[in-house]
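hiii, so i know i said id send this last week but things got crazy w the move. better late than never?? heres the sequnce for the chain we talked about at the cafe, plus the structure i predicted for it. fair warning i was half asleep when i ran it
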Amino acid sequence: MKYIMKAGTLYFNDIVSARIKGALTGSEKKIYSANGSGLMYTNIANLKVPPNEARNVRHRQYILFDSNGNKYAVANPDYAEEDDPTVVGWPLCRMPRVDHAKVVFDKNEYLLIMQNSQNYILSDKSGKAVIQIFHRGLAGGWNIEVMNDFIPEMICGIFVFCKYIEQENEFLVV
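okay and structure toks below
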């Protein structure tokens, strides 16, 4: 199935399937159905860690909650292999690059990989792509190809997880 994401709205055959809306502050994003009813929301959780580990992305979780506040999916971000601070040390002038997250939902594990800032792939345990997200270039928006049966709000949740990975790699201005 082929979807298009434009300005936070997910379309299937030019028909609205779901919408993503964010708050002015914070990382929470709300996902609404085509008729405007709240379905799910996402947020980033910082796990309890010693103060010297607070900047380590491995102590964060991206969480997709259902409308009752129950965890529906959880993603654990991680560093790019060549930037892993446990192997190469912490860079002096930037944060290590984050390029993937392990996603768990419905008792299944997936791997969300940022190929570059414009292309993402969600793969199952066997390495088969189940969702591919590609930037549309000058046309704007994103093409989303879904190989399995995923509900539109789950597709939106995966899209938000991609945006969270992007945020991990943004340059911090102090």
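btw The mean pLDDT is 90. thought thatd interest u
miss u guys!!
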